[in-house]
Amino acid sequence: MTDLNRRGILAGAAAGAVALGAAAAAKAAEFGNPNRPLQGAINSSALANADPGPQNPALRDVLPSFANPPATDVGGMQIPWNSFNMAHKRIQDGGWAREVTTKAFPISKDIAGVNMRLGPGGVRELHWHQQAEWAIVTVGGIRITTIDSQGRSEVADVEMGDIWYFPPGLPHSLQGIGANGGEFVIAFDDGASGEFNTLMLSDWLAHTPPDILAQNFGVPADKFKNIPLEQLWIYQGAQAGPLRADQLYAASSLGRPDHPFIFRMGAMKPTLTQPGGEVRIVDSNNFPVSKTVAAALVTLRPGGLREMHWHPDADEWQYFIKGSGRMTVFNTGPVAQTVDFNPGDVGYVQKSLGHYIKNTGTSDLIFLELFKSDHFAEVSLSQWLANTPRQLVKEHLRVDDATLDVIHQLKNRRDVIA
Question: At 163, is the pLDDT very low, low, confident or very high (cuts 50, 70, 90)?
Answer without folding.
Answer: very high
